[in-house]
Specification:
Distance between the termini: 22 Å
Strand order of the largest sheet: 1-2
Order of helices and strands: HHHHHHHHHHHEEHHHHHH
Number of helices: 17
Low-confidence stretches: 1-6
Number of domains: 1
Oligomer: single chain
CATH topology: Growth Hormone, Chain: A
CATH superfamily: MFS general substrate transporter like domains
Largest sheet: 2 strands, antiparallel
Radius of gyration: 23 Å
Number of strands: 2
Shape: globular
Length: 511
Amino acid sequence: MAIQNPPVSQTKSFSTVFLIEMWERFGFYGMQVLMVTYMVKKLGFPDVDANLVWGAASALIYATPAIGGWIGDKFLGTRRTMLTGAVVLMVGYALLWIPTNSTYFLYIALGVIILGNGLFKPNAGNLVRKIYEGDEVKIDSAFTIYYMAVNVGSTISMLLTPWIRDYVGTHYSDALGWHTAFGVCSIGLILGLINYFFMRRTLAHVGSEPDEHPPKVKNILAIIGAGILIIAASAYILQNQGVAQACVYIAGVVILGIFVHLIRSSAQGERAGLIAALVLTVQTIFFFIFYQQMSTSLNLFAQRNVDLQFNLFGWNIFTWIPEQFQSLNAIWIVILSPILVWLYNTLGKHGKDFPVAAKFALGFAAVAAGFFMYGLGATTAIAGKISSWYMVWGYGLYSLGEVLVSGLGLAMIARYVPARMGGFMMGAYYVASGVAQYMGSVVANYAAIPDNITDPLQSLTIYTSLFNKLGMVGILCTGIAVGMLPLMKKLSLNHALANVPPFPPVHNEDL
């Protein structure tokens, strides 16, 4: 545990990380909520290309934290690497602020954002863990609040940046509207960095071993060189979809192969836990395919086939911008998370808490119901547009599924994986999640609307066909998860009897 001299309260140290994380998520989700629409409406990308470019970017955003965590632990220091990542992200969003329609410039900007995310995310989570090192009671509470920071920051930005885009676009110019909205994301990081500057002393005692010494020049130069290569490679992958597909599918095959090798070569007592971890990882990958629809097919569906007015008993309460519907995910998570925590605790006290594998099954059932909700909305659509309330309830069910599946994914991997394999498994989990994000974009393209279709009645049929099929896949995943319950129960029992030392507890916002 880090020694504090002079003593600094854990709360103050945590608040520093909390606030910069909140602003970082403000910037990231403010950018994400607009990106696919920006490519389609401003840069003229077909739906297919916009979905795949963002899918490739999402995959890289999930993969690079494995590198960033390693740099923080071994070379630059956890604290310095987090700060460097925040600066790089600020630069990435600032590049999007520049009014240009160059697609290559977009790829470079996304490459910078991918690098910045990789440096920032794992190290911010590690700092929270180090602040509460040895205090397992407080660390769970801290990560709960930390998760709230993510959703508070993302909710505000997903509501704000589309409004700024429309307001500036209406009063000045469309181009200025888009780039000003992206600029606000950069301003969010600037505010986070200013806040960090004034509170930096609260983290002076927290970090990894390299934080305690001046950084070596050779390490700095090597990291700068590697960063430039990552940006260039990311830009190249984003503009070459054949390369992107090859990288994604090769990564998936390699991860599966390594999983199989580790299971075959592991000790008898470790094998049951590793098989259980593999089963849960595969189920989580299916969830992320559903998850990717939020920024792709569901986003474009809101553009074309959703009545943007929220009406209640004949009265118009308010009207939303299409991209703002994505904020419903974060809003519902804020509402549902404390309810589920209370339910888990209550059931646990009475010894009636149901197993994690059962929660996965319930999560997939909720996701399936969410996608069917959009299909149900089509039955009452007027002129090809469904009521906005169907989006609210669809996102609510989908978000319940996210809390039940994705919210437990990392914690369960940590429970079943031996400590000596923990670092690799965390990296493999994130890379697998990135592969799933790209696959989700491929799935979204089954509802890509051709340029010659402008009638909402035609596009409604295409979208709801995909959503109903995703609902059926969700039912299939639920059935598989239920069918796996006896096996998972047996694997969990064998793992418990083997008494394998577990990996330290982890939380999903380590990413």
